[in-house]
Amino acid sequence: MHYLDVMGLLAYFILLGYIGYRSVKKVNSSADFAVAGNKITWPILFATLAASFLGGGASMGRAGQAFDHGYAFMFAASAFPIATVLTGIFIAPKLKRYIGAHTVGDIMEQQFGRYARLITGIFSLIFCIGILGAQALAVGTVFNAIIGIDITTGILIGMGVVLLYSTIGGMWAVIQTDVVQFLMLAIFMPITLLIGINEVGGAEQLIARLPDSHFSIMGDYGPGMFLSLFIAFLLGETLVPPYTQRALAAPDSRNAKIGYTISGVFGFLFYFVSSTIGLIALILYPDISPDLAMPELIRTALPLGITGLVLASLLAVVMSTADSYLNSASVIFVKDIYQGFINPDVDEKNKLWIERLVNLLIGIGAVVFALYATSIIDALLISYSLWAPTILIPFVLGVLLDLKCSKSAIGAIIAGALVTIVWKWGPWDLSGMTGLSALVAGVSANLLTFTVIYHTFKNSRATSLVTKNS
Predict the structure, then answer these.
(1) Which of 46, 83, 106, 449 lies 20 to 30 angstroms, CA to CA, from 187?
(2) Are 49 and 368 in contact (CB under 8 A)?
(3) Are 139 and 155 in contact (CB under 8 A)?
(4) 432: buried, middle or exposed (CB in 10 Å: 19+, 13-18, 0-12)?
(5) Which residues have CB under 8 Å from 372's CB, separation 6+?
(6) Under 8 Å between Cβ of 398 and 459
(7) Residue 112 — φ and ψ, nearest 5°?
């Protein structure tokens, strides 16, 4: 890299450190660390949500899959922005009725009792560390592809910066850096796309030089595989802890609804941009690894002085997701597990310091996860199987329909987890035998179990008192 590009990258890292330093003054309580004092209006909520869910999977992962399968993966993955828009319209506004809630576990306890909170906290924590590991792997991949350092060193550098500002500044630092990172991706990703199109000779040449299958809705996926991917992205990250936490950080239901919905609409545009970059890379660099499609285009096609800024924007989309999951994981551990079941009387000052310590330890754990993950998308899909088949269905039914039955929620979570584990890691090839993915089987078991148990116990006295006594 030219020294001008290196200077641009260094300037980005210095800015993140400065934001973290300034944010320390705003973090005086656990509420400041977790939900930024509930002061995030819809324009900021839109920016921070968009920056959070458009991470390594939505950028390099989408580009890599488009490199292999064309736009088919984009069509399958568009289920996520669809789910985000629907969540913004129907669910996000209802989350604001849970006064003082910081986590999914806070809401699950109000609907299904304290043991539902504990189970939710455990699964949420594992899920966040898995997604965080995928983003750490993406950070290392960017450094390796563009600067040439090995992936492990890149992971340590990038995650070291994330750990610094998120640990000292909490949600205030995360949201402020997310806004900066959102502006960078909104400017530089389209610039990369336009330069790439010019490199291949224009849009007509791009279309002419690609196989027809790369423009079909399902590409080389069979119907079962396409449907499985669509459902995985429809449910896999819906209302996951960091996104729920963002809605809870809004001052009221109106801001939560608008910010959440617009971020989903923006997702469609970004998915198209990142997927098209993958197709450009296929034409220019057909022999590279798919995960390197976007970094390779940035490294070789962009003009001098722009490469460092675009590299910074690529790191931005990855780091913005990483910091969100890191902050959420630490808040989950302290609120849902430590304060809920280990030390209920912990004071605000000690709770804040514990959140910072846990933030640091979880970040280290995610780095270890990243070192063993085989690819960004694989890491994401494994993590998705820990969320949708366990927590999502009871959470959505509880919020939307105000259902309260601890037996149905806990039974559904356990059933969904067991079916998913057997389906994915058991001795039989159940996916091949049935045509159903582990996620779909787990979600189905979860929903069926919840429905049966709820209708069995909904009129019992135990059910009506569960929230009070459990």
Answers:
(1) 83
(2) no
(3) yes
(4) exposed
(5) none
(6) no
(7) -130, 5
Scanning the structure block, which residue is given the tokens 């640990």? 167
The owner of tokens 């049966």 is 452
Q: How far apart are CA 25 and CA 37, in angstroms?
A: 13
Residue-wise DSSP of 349-390 = HHHHHHHHHHHHHHHHHHHHHHHH-S-HHHHHHHHHTTTIII
Helix, strand, coil percentages in the chain from 3-state DSSP, rounded to 5: 80, 0, 20
Contact residues for 160 (Cβ-Cβ < 8 A; gap 6+): none
Q: Which of 458, 424, 410 is nearest to 123 (CA)?
A: 410
Reported as a single tens digit per residue, the pLDDT across 118-131 is 999 999 988 888 77
Q: How far is CA 133 from CA 171, 285, 329, 351, 396, in A?
A: 19, 27, 12, 25, 26
**pTM metric for this prediction:** 0.81
Tokens found for residue 397: 């039914």
At 443-461, the pLDDT tens digits run 999 999 999 999 988 766 4
CA-derived radius of gyration, the chain? 22
Amino acid at 389: P
